[in-house]
Amino acid sequence: MSNLTVSKHFVQAALGGAQSLGFDTTQLLREAGISPELLRIDMARVSSDQFSELMRVIWHRLDDECMGMGPRRARVGTFATMCALVIDCPTLEAVYRRAYQFSRLFEPMIAMELIVNGDQARLVTRIEGELRDPDYFLRESLLVIWHRLGSWLIGQPVELELAEFDYHKPEHADEYRHIFRCPLSFDAGHTAITFDTRFLSAPVIRDKSEMRQFLKTSPADLLSRPDESNTFTGRIRALIGRDFSSPMPDFEWIAAELHTSPQTLRRRLKQENTSFQEIKDLLRRDMAIYYLSRQELPINEIAGMVGFTEPSTFHRAFKKWTGVTPGAYREGERGNLSN
């Protein structure tokens, strides 16, 4: 199971196009295994598995990979066709250039254009026509999918130097820190991501059989589950593990395991927009949410499982994370939240 969670904001934003087209969003949520009642909790989160399933439900119900938000429909299979065209490319630069040529075949165009300037490469969102995307979900999804697809194709994370957005800083902007792991700029001239040109010459290491396997769950999994195995955040999460019943490893031990100094590790985590304390807190939060979905587990037992010796301390921490008590959160997941 995945131990990552996704903010309720993105759940509601993903449903925006379907709602504007008159689809029953409550039914779509239930098909994805998400309790509509849970979304009444302001700081609710769903598992990455649930979010992936919601993406698949929306795409197939609407037969539109733009989720009803774009200037035109992109029928299901468009992304897979583009992937089939780029898998034979020799380098990441060739991937991005061929994908842009593919996207330009459709009118109005929805594409990411590669622009190289010195030692900086930018992927810039190019969308013609009107959008039904008040929560910016389609635009953000394009950035995330193209960044993570490129990283997967070359087998290493494309480290971002900047993520830009051509709109005001939204209320959910704090979530962007964990999505892009780089400096953020709002009210920019374009919606784009910037990275070092050295990544453009990286060879594509995936083959057609790997791509077929990849497409069974993508692009849904690209949106909900980043491959963090090569980031310091992801490696620390892996070292901490999921068993919090024994004391957590300290920062010095973690640094030694990663063959780096504590000072260097702090600097790298800052570059990834996080800290050791935040990694621990968010890991506990996500595991607590996962355990609460298992109705047979008593809440006091869950407190111990996520590293709290006193249930009252767990209740306070959980309320800080989600705005409600563990009991109220579980009722929301059950669909029994009282008015």
List the helices and strands and how they pair.
Layout: E1 5-7, H1 8-14, H2 16-20, H3 25-31, E2 45-47, H4 48-62, H5 78-86, H6 92-103, E3 110-117, E4 120-127, H7 137-154, E5 160-164, H8 176-180, E6 184-185, E7 192-196, H9 208-214, H10 220-224, H11 232-240, H12 251-257, H13 262-271, H14 276-292, H15 299-305, H16 311-322, H17 326-334
Parallel strand pairs: 5-6
Antiparallel strand pairs: 1-2, 3-4, 4-7, 5-7
Task: Kindly list the characteristics that best describe this protein.
7 strands, globular, two-stranded antiparallel sheet, 47% helix, 2 domains, five-stranded mixed sheet, alpha+beta
Give helix and strand order, one letter per element, not per position: EHHHEHHHEEHEHEEHHHHHHHHH
The residue fraction in helices comes out at 40-55%
Biggest sheet, spatial arrangement of strands = 3-4-7-5-6
How much of the sequence lies in strands comes to 5-15%
Main sheet overview = 5 strands, mixed
Integer-rounded radius of gyration: 21 Å
What is the number of beta strands?
Answer: 7
Number of helical segments? 17
Structural class: alpha+beta
- How many structural domains? 2
Average pLDDT figure:
91
Distance from first to last alpha carbon = 32 Å
Unreliably modeled segments = none
Tell me, briefly, the overall form: globular
InterPro entries: AraC-type_N, Homeodomain-like_sf, HTH_AraC, Tscrpt_reg_AraC-type_HTH
Protein name: AraC family transcriptional regulator
Keywords: DNA-binding, Transcription, Transcription regulation
